[in-house]
Amino acid sequence: MQRLYDFLRRHPTGVDSFWALVVLGITLVSVSGPGTSDEGTHLLALIIPFAVLLSVVIALRQRMPERMLLLAVAIGVGQLALDVSTMPSDFAFLVIVYTVAATGARWASRTALAVGLCAAPFAQLRWADDELGIGSNIAITVFQAVPFALAWVLGDSIRTRRAYFAQLEERAARLEKEREAQAKVAVAAERARIARELHDVVAHNVSVMVVQADGAAYVLDAAPDQAKKALETISSTGRQALAEMRRLLGVLRTGEHQEAGEYVPQPDVQQIEDLVEHCRTSGLPVDFKVEGTPRQLPSGVELTAYRIVQEALTNTRKHGGPNAGASVRLVYFDDGLGLLIEDDGKGAPHELYEEGGFDGQGHGLIGMRERIGMVGGTLDAGPRPGGGFRISALLPLKPAH
Questions:
Q1: What angle separates helix 224-252 from helix 134-219, to the nearest 10 degrees?
Q2: Rounded Cα–Cα distance for residues 205 and 362 (Å)
Q3: pLDDT tens-digit map of 318-358
Q4: Is 212 part of any domain?
Q5: Which of 16, 54, 190, 218 has its CB 3.0 to 4.6 Å from that of 89, i.e. a possible disulfide?
Q6: Domain of 400: which CATH number?
């Protein structure tokens, strides 16, 4: 049954042609019969062409509704002019009025309504029953006009309903595309966030491990105690890096319920002092000062501040030279947190802080700008007068809109 229904929906003209033949057959049966007089034969010769044309109107109503409306109007005028009275095939007038109201152009829909309402009065005037009074003729006219009005109203309501559903489908498709776009943006943002975290963790800890490994290899024979201390620093730094890596990877494991405390918490401002001490242990002199009244800050601001200091000290270790020193200043304002990280080394190359590195892969300062942009802060990074490098940042306490 479903296959038959689908077949009929795919071939609407065939279905209409079937019903057109049915109406034509009913008309021929109703106007013909045994014992037809010469006058009846003449009348039948007039009726058959009109009946056939009205059947064509029904058969092609969906393929070309506007043209079929004009053909129906011409047939109706011909019936009035040639005195071809109403017959079953005139049902095609109701069908075309409905079709044009549902699927035709607006001008055709309005024309169909006007012609349909005028058809009944013209027909009643042409074939009026003299035995009936004026009131009865008017009542019959109104009664005959009602089907045309109902056909048009039904067709117009179908048009409105189809337009409504089409609008709903369009809106649903647009919302689906917007959801897909938002999902892609969210995925890209999450990938960028994870990339920043991985860069900060790997760049800082691995640079410490490399410096300590080089120092241990240099003093291994001459100062075994210093080499042992360097190896211990490498071990602790590696464990810290693994812990942070495990936390980041845990974010990616959706659907798994992790035990509380398995991953270390996000770094905050309080851990900057530990970070500075770790850098001192690895051989980088760092002067650390806090100005203002320390207080609890939003978690996003705390993590951003920690990562900025971490990346700045990592860059000092990588680009400042063997004798570079650094200073870190944290300033608590009423409406934000200020950061100032300076070093007296040889400074970073211009390509690093302006163009993303010599090979376009320098993501440290890019990550800083992205982090600060997420919290609505400002960043100023560049060479320091007199040598070295300076990074100045202001992190507002209110989130960016």
A1: 170
A2: 17
A3: 787 778 889 999 999 988 899 999 998 876 665 555 544 43
A4: no
A5: 54
A6: 3.30.565.10
Per the structure, the complete domain to which residue 312 belongs is given by 268-401
Q: Which of 196, 337, 340 is nearest to 269 (CA)?
A: 337
Q: How far apart are CA 381 and CA 139, in angstroms?
A: 92
pLDDT in tens, 171-217: 988 988 888 888 888 777 767 766 666 666 666 667 767 777 777 77
Q: Which two tokens stand for residue 280?
A: 């001192």
Question: Is 84 contained in some domain?
Answer: yes
Domain edge (last residue) among 112, 127, 142:
127
**8 A C-beta contact, residue 29 and residue 71:** no
- The one-character DSSP state at 265 is P
Question: Is 317 within the bounds of a domain?
Answer: yes
Number of domains observed in the structure of the chain? 2
- Using alpha carbons, select from 150, 14, 28 the residue that is nearest to residue 89: 28
The rounded distance, in Å, linking the Cα atoms of 90 and 114 is: 17
From 127, 126, 100, 125, select the one nearest 111 (Cα to Cα). Answer: 100
Distance CA 98, CA 100 (A): 6
Q: What is the pTM of this model?
A: 0.50
The residue to which tokens 């038959």 are assigned: 4
The Cα 171–Cα 177 span in angstroms is 10
d(CA 305, CA 165): 52
Q: Which of 127, 157, 173 is the last residue of a domain?
A: 127
**Is residue 12 a part of any domain in this protein?**
yes
What would the two tokens of residue 149 be?
């009005």
Contacts of 351 (CB under 8 A, 6+ apart): 357, 358, 362
